[in-house]
Amino acid sequence: MAGNKKLFRYYYWVILEFFKKHSRLILLSFFISFVAIIGFLSLSPYIKVAMTKQEVIGLVGQYDINNPPDEIVNKISNGLVTVTDKGEIIPVIANSWEVDPQGTRYRFHLKDNLLWGDNKKFTSKDISYDFKDVKVDVIDDKTIDFILKKPLAIFPTYLNKPLIRYPLIGVAGFYKSGKIKTKSGYLSEVDLIPNIKGYSPIIYKFYNNESQLVDAYKSGEINQMTLTKKSIADTFLSWKNSSVQRKVDYSRLMTLFLNQKVKILTNKNIKDAIGSAFDYQKLSAYGEIAKGPIPPTSWGYDPNLKSNTYDPENASTIVRNEIKATEEAKLNLVTSYNYYDVADEISGELKAIGLNNDLNFSSINQIGSFDMLLAYWKVPTDPDQYFFWHSKQTVENQGGNIVSYNNPKIDNLLEEGRSTIDLDKREAIYFDFQKNIIADPPAIFLFYPYVYTISRR
């Protein structure tokens, strides 16, 4: 027992002398280790993102599992057909189709051995497009009929929407969905697994606003994001490990809608004055200036359209000559807080030419009454815009003609444009449509917005 005590005292004094002799080195090593651990914990998100081959993409918006973003849907599934940039209709899930002599029954034949993303067999019974006034008749597992009330030559173009079943299961996509996370009923994370060799996995994470999105990128939680505000995107230009790419989003068009139930706004000269009131050089900071309602990426776009020109003096003269004092009114200009900068400029320039207006803010999803509405319009991929401008497509009739536009010439052109599948004929019709709608506009088509994609190198 005494021997053990002597041995303990021996080691005690040896260790004590060691610490006395090397105390500075021990403290320095401890400090360096502490700093290294803190630094590793701070940089670990970046190291994790750098080491992984998968893309981690941040998106802004609240989406539920029944309403996923198009970016995901287009990766995990396909429609019966796809429409090329040249307007050609190419079968994808479908193998072929034919139409009866009356033009009201379309029969589609499916390809062989189609499977859902979870490897369940895909049959014609699984096809659900929920079209209004279209009857569906399933002939067998590989054949389906769509029966229309009246002929519509461009009907196959509406079958390009990807088919999805719960929960985010697609068919014939480049990817299939993996792990899905939700929070308070909304998607918080969706993992995509590639179906094709050479493709990298993708993780989508969702945020309520751009501020949260930016914080997620800075913390290393995501390695790619897309922003709409140039001022925020520019802050990443100095990041050596990040690249910033500016693109034009041709799927959205900033538009000033003119309510045609307001007498002043039906006056063609007043419409011309409004079109000349805006400084398009300033607006070009927000996006690519539009010439009409069909984007330049469309095969139906007329490149020879004339652009609106900034001429506030002439616009002021027109307003003074056209609007009598007894007719003068204060117009109700409605928009979203998200578009405040643009809306403030638009409102000020309208006032400068003599069109008094009150700028009011509202949720775009809950628009009430308006004289003028400034909002992004989701432009259809096909130049057929019957739903938005035909006189029969008013809001009262559950259509998209929110300004109650009524122009017989435009009605005829829209009807002709969807009555043939011949691309040369359709192109000529939509060229004519663009010239006529610019001559008597239901809205002022302003710009296609810039978007900024920030990604780690």
Question: Can you walk through the features of this model?
Answer:
- The protein has 457 residues and is of the alpha+beta class.
- The chain is built from 11 helices and 18 strands.
- The strands form 3 sheets. Strands 1, 8, 9, 10, 11, 12, 13, 14, 15, 16, 17 and 18 form a 12-stranded mixed β-sheet that branches.
- The protein starts with a helix and ends with a strand.
- The model is unreliable at 43-50 (pLDDT under 50).
Number of strands: 18
Strand content bin = 15-25%
Biggest sheet features: 12 strands, mixed
Helix count equals 11
Mean pLDDT over the full residue set? 90
SS class? alpha+beta
Succession of helices and strands: HEHEEEEEEEEEHEHEEHHEHEHEEHHHE
User: What is the CA-atom radius of gyration, in angstroms?
Assistant: 30 Å
- Low-confidence segments, given as residue ranges, are 43-50
The dominant shape is flat
- Our measurement of the CA-to-CA distance between the termini, rounded to an integer number of angstroms, reads 67 Å
- Percent helix range: 25-40%
In short:
30% of the residues lie in helices and 25% in strands. It is an alpha+beta fold and 457 residues long. The longest helix has 50 residues, at 2-51.
